[in-house]
Amino acid sequence: MFPLSEGFPGIIYSLSEVFMNKLQQIFIALSVLIMSNFTVSATEETFSAGAVLLPMDAKPQTAKNTLQVYGLLYELLANSEVVVKWIINPEKVKDGVDFEYENKKYRSGVFLIPVSYHTEKNKKIFEKWKEKGVHYITTKESLTLPVFTDLYIKPKWTLDKENGSIAVPFFRAAGIPSEAYGGNKIKNWKNPQELGICDDIFVMPHADPDFESHKNLYFWNKNYKGAIWAGCHAASILENLTGKLNGKEGGENIQLNFLSAGFAGARSAGLLHYSKHRDGTPPYKNHHPEDPVAQYLGSPGLAHLNGSERIFLPKKINEWRSQTKVLVSDPDMPDIPKLSKGPAAISLYGHGFGDPKNGLVMYQAAHNIFGKNEGHIAALRMFFNWSFYATEIKRRENLVKFTSLSGDNNTVAAKVGDDLRYILNLNPINFDLDEYEIRREAKEQLQKIARFMQKNPEILIDIRSHTDSRANDSYNNELSENRVKATRDFLVENGVEANRISGRGYGETEPVNNCYNHVPCLESQHEANRRSEFILSIDCEVYNELHSN
After folding, report:
1. Would you say 445 and 522 are in contact if contact means Cβ atoms under 8 Å apart?
2. For 222, which DSSP code?
3. pTM of the entire structure?
4. Residue 155: CB partners within 8 Å, gap ≥ 6?
5. Quick check: 505 and 482 in contact, CB under 8 A?
6. DSSP string for 415-451
7. In this structure, which of 8, 59, 126, 546 has its CB flanked by the most CB atoms within 10 Å?
């Protein structure tokens, strides 16, 4: 017989090897599609002229023209009570078009700030960031665009005490202030057991976690919807940690395999140890171009070619959870299928333990994804996309309990960003035409808000007052500001500290119906727009002090 390296049998062997490699690639591609069984959708919304677009498709992609957009978003959400619209075409291909405007095709996701937030204060903020390199556009006509989600609140990152310093350059590159992540001092960072309700995102690059110190991540992700980001070998070590919640003598047996399947404590559960597999083999495959976290141009591959763990693999008889999204994979990873069924993941995320009620978890390979080339910019964009999205998921899912008005140890649950009027089941608080005095019937409703805030000193509110569309814009802006002042004054007179109340007038820019300028409407429809809203947030220091036990 001929040796395998010569003649006809060798040809058969080579052809078989090619066939098996192709089959392997097809299997991996199908696995990525099957695992990601939750889809991304968008809602069509129409925005009036004067909205601000923040394009994300500048070329070449740099920290100044791209990453600093996240710094601008952070400032708007932190200081201006802004709602940001995230525009993504749910049917686009990789680097495809989200929408067209004035003969330009916009790609890679766009952030939009509606005209109602284009205030003089915010114009100065936009101009400040423009001088730093951020590009923005003020629309000249109304646009109907696909909105993936709204962003209501700024993220609060908490860096891991062990190696949090690795992530500090991420924030500096984006122009995000140090108070957003605890600054450069390790004393302001935390260990996992210290995380609480006011921490949004735990950033854990290149750490060596152990079960006793990190088991709080299980509760924090489940109960408070906290989001977890892990880089390098922190991910595979974390996924393999297992133990009992109440120590060796009893309690539920759990494993911290947030994104991979398998039973707690089973040898098959979790990921291959970072020392037990080879590195990735670029070029990598990018998936889910319609996903919010995957809004980046090109590929982040070059950012992941360093460190002790440059790729993640589920154990041989394990798999990624069906709800986990693999955004970047390696279809040619040589340890598949011998050591793992794959797919080999470079970047992936999902809800902890596949439960949509839990916070988001994300893993990105490599010791450090920071850098200046376009691959690093893409990887950092994934980090910030995920961060803002994870914070919004937490806001939606994290119910905060407060003492109810009825007493008797009853509680009421609410979310940051909710309107207190709905939480307390109050009647609408409307105003008479051209007036800002508080109606007699509205005073009773406002007194309930005041009592609720007195019972719960951790509550902060933002008053948002509106007008109908009649009269001109400047008159309505002034009228709505007067309505805010009258509402705030009433609450202060009824025992609420002034420093717990913020607010501004929105004029006629946010009607609850279609009663825009020159549209004939019933008086009752106009009245519905002459309203005040009371948007909830919490003072974390006060909350922690009250609920520390």
Report:
1. no
2. H
3. 0.85
4. 74, 180, 200, 201, 387, 388, 390, 391
5. yes
6. -TT-BHHHHTTPPP-B--TT--SPPHHHHHHHHHHHH
7. 126
| Length of the chain (residues) | 549
Decide if 91 contacts 171 (C-beta within 8 A).
no
Tracing tokens 């891991």 back to the chain, one arrives at 160
pLDDT in tens, 241-283: 999 887 555 578 999 999 999 888 888 899 999 999 999 999 9
Q: Quick one: angle between helices 440-455 and 473-493, nearest 10?
A: 60
Burial category of 374 from C-beta neighbours within 10 Å (exposed 0-12, middle 13-18, buried 19 and up): buried
The residue type found at 288 is: H
Burial 197-215 (b: 16+ CB within 10 A, else e): bebbbbbbbbbebebeebb
H helical segments located in 183-228: 211-214, 216-223
Question: Which secondary structure element, helix H or strand E, spans residue 137, and what is its range?
Answer: strand 137-138
Distances in Å between the Cα of 267 and the Cα atoms of 242, 251, 261, 262, 505 are: 10, 20, 12, 9, 59
pLDDT tens-digit series, residues 83-98: 999 999 999 999 999 9
Q: How far is CA 192 from CA 131, 159, 220, 366, 394, in A?
A: 39, 10, 9, 21, 17
Rg (CA), the chain: 26
Q: Which residue has the tokens 């279609």?
A: 514
Q: Is the pLDDT score of 540 beyond 70?
A: yes
CB atoms within 10 A of CB 147: 16
Classify strands 157-159 and 143-151 as parallel, antiparallel or unpaired: unpaired
Which H or E element spans position 538? strand 532-538
Residue 43: in which H helix or E strand, if any? strand 43-47
Q: How many CA atoms lie within 13 A of 93 on its CB side?
A: 0
Phi/psi of residue 370, nearest 5 degrees: -75, 140
| High-pLDDT (> 90) share of the chain, % | 80
- Read off the amino acid at residue 188: N
Selection from 390, 385, 412, 381 nearest residue 399 by Cα: 412
> Residue 256 is encoded by which pair of tokens?
């911290």
Peptide bond into 114 cis (omega under 30): no
Beta-ladder partners of 53: 112, 137
Instruction: For 186-213, write each residue's pLDDT tens digit.
Output: 999 999 999 988 899 999 999 999 999 9
Asked if the bond preceding 343 is cis, omega within 30° of 0, the reply is yes
Instruction: Identify the residue whose tokens are 């069906």.
Output: 322
Characterise 50 by phi-psi region: left (phi > 0), alpha (psi -120 to 50), beta (else). Answer: left
